[in-house]
C-alpha cells in the first residue's frame, strides 16, 4: 500500500516506515481503566487549540488599486475607516501614525498579543501570475492559501504557523505583471514584500528577461522612503519546472545575467541594497518528479537557519503597520526609466 502511495503521489514516505496498526474489538476496550485512559488519550488546552484553528484561516491585509497601496482593516476594504482615508492630513508623521494605528489584522491581532514575546520569521511568495506560488507556500509551512490554475490571489494575504520557538508569518502575494495591475501597483506590492520579509521566494519561469530586471531596478529608487538597514531579506529566485539534466546550466545562466545587472549598477546595485540577506537561485523540479519535495525540504532548512528580523511579535506588528502606512501615503508615477515621487 505504501509503495503504491509513494509511486502515485511522488511524496516522501520514509516516515511511514515506522507506521504500525493493531485491531481490537470495541467490546474488549476497557475505557474505564485508568491505565488505558493514560495510554490512549491526549490532553490539549482549549485556548491553544482555538488559536491553531484560527491560524488555518488566511486574512487579506492589503490591496493595490488605482495606483495606490491600500491597507485593509480586519480584511475589509473601506474608505470609511478613520485614519485609512486621505482626509485630515496634519503632517506626514501624524498622518502615518494615524493610519498605522487604525490598521488591524483581524483575529491575528489577539494571537500576536498572546505570543507577544515570541520571535517572528516572515516568509513570502511572489512572482509571475499562475505559477504555483500559493501551492508552494502551503507545502512549505503548512498554510491554507487558495490555489488555482487561474488568478486566485489579490493583494496580500497573511497566515500564521505557530511553533515552539517561532511564529512563522506567511505572506502570499498576487502575481506580478498581470493585466489587472499597473507597474506602480506591482511596485507597491514588491516593495512591501522586500521591507517586511525575512525570506522571499520569487517564483519565475526559465529566463531572466528585461521586464524582470527592470522591475527589480525600478523599486530600488523608491526604497529611499525607508532606512536601508531595514532591508535584510534573503531572495531565493525559484525557477519553475526545471528538468534534472538542465539544472546546472539554468543556474549558471541566471547567475551570469544577474552578475551583468549588478556590474552595470556598480556598488549601489539593487541586490546588495535591497537583499542584504543574499541571493540564491534554486532550480525547482517538475511536480511529478520525486525530488520536488526534497527541494522543498531544502528551502525549509534555509528558513530555519534564516536569522529572525523581528525579536518579538509586538515589534513585528508595529513595524509592519508603519510600513503599510508609509506606502499608503506615498504617491509616485513611473516614466520609461525612472520613478518620480510626488
CATH architecture: 3-Layer(aba) Sandwich
Sequence of strands across the biggest β-sheet:
2-1-4-5-3-6-7-8
What's the number of structural domains? 1
CATH superfamily: P-loop containing nucleotide triphosphate hydrolases
CATH C-level? Alpha Beta
| Secondary-structure element series | HHHEEHHEHEEHEHEHHEHHEE
Q: Name the poorly predicted regions.
A: 86-92, 333-337
Classify the helix fraction into a percent range: 25-40%
Give the biggest sheet: 8 strands, mixed
The structural class is: alpha/beta
Mean pLDDT: 80
GO molecular function: GTP binding; GTPase activity
Organism: Rhizophagus irregularis
InterPro entries: Guanylate-bd_N, P-loop_NTPase
Protein name: Guanylate-binding protein N-terminal domain-containing protein
Quick tags:
P-loop_NTPase; two-stranded antiparallel ribbon; globular; alpha/beta; 8-stranded mixed sheet; Rossmann fold; Guanylate-bd_N; 342 residues; 39% helix; Guanylate-binding protein N-terminal domain-containing protein
Kindly describe this structure.
Helix content is 39%, strand content 17%. It is of the alpha/beta class and 342 residues long. It starts with a helix and ends with a strand. This is Guanylate-binding protein N-terminal domain-containing protein. Pfam families: GBP (PF02263).
Amino acid at each position: 500500500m505504501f509503495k503504491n502511495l509513494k509511486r502515485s503521489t511522488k511524496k516522501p514516505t520514509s516516515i511511514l516506515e515506522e507506521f504500525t496498526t493493531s485491531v481490537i474489538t470495541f467490546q474488549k476496550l476497557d475505557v474505564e481503566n485508568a491505565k488505558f485512559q493514560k495510554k490512549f488519550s491526549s490532553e490539549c488546552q482549549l485556548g491553544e487549540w482555538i488559536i491553531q484553528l484560527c491560524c488555518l484561516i488566511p486574512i487579506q491585509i492589503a490591496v493595490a488599486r488605482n495606483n495606490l497601496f491600500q491597507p485593509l482593516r480586519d480584511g475589509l476594504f473601506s474608505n470609511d475607516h478613520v485614519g485609512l482615508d486621505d482626509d485630515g492630513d496634519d503632517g506626514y508623521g501624524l498622518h502615518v501614525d494615524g493610519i498605522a494605528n487604525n490598521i488591524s489584522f483581524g483575529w491575528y491581532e489577539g494571537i500576536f498579543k498572546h505570543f507577544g514575546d515570541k520571535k517572528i520569521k516572515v516568509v513570502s511568495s511572489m512572482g509571475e501570475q499562475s505559477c504555483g506560488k500559493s501551492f508552494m507556500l502551503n507545502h512549505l509551512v503548512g498554510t491554507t492559501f487558495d490555489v488555482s490554475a487561474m488568478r486566485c490571489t489579490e493583494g496580500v494575504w497573511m497566515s500564521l504557523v505557530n511553533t515552539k520557538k517561532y511564529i512563522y508569518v506567511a505572506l502570499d502575494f498576487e502575481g506580478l505583471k498581470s493585466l489587472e495591475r499597473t507597474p506602480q501597483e506591482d511596485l507597491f506590492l514588491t516593495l512591501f514584500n522586500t521591507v517586511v520579509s525575512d525570506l522571499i521566494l520569487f517564483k519565475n519561469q526559465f529566463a531572466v528577461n528585461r521586464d524582470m530586471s527592470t522591475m527589480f531596478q525600478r523599486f530600488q529608487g523608491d526604497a529611499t522612503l525607508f532606512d536601508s538597514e531595514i532591508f535584510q531579506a534573503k531572495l531565493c529566485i525559484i525557477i519553475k519546472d526545471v528538468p534534472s539534466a538542465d539544472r546546472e546550466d539554468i543556474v549558471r545562466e541566471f547567475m551570469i545575467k544577474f552578475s551583468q545587472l549588478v556590474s552595470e549598477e556598480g556598488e549601489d546595485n539593487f541586490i546588495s541594497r535591497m537583499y542584504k540577506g543574499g541571493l540564491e537561485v534554486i532550480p525547482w523540479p517538475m511536480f511529478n518528479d520525486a525530488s520536488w519535495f526534497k527541494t522543498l525540504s531544502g528551502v525549509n532548512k534555509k528558513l530555519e537557519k534564516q536569522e529572525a528580523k523581528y525579536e518579538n511579535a509586538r515589534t513585528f506588528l508595529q513595524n509592519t503597520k508603519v510600513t503599510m502606512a508609509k506606502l499608503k501615503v506615498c504617491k509616485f508615477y513611473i516614466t520609461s526609466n525612472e520613478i518620480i515621487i510626488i
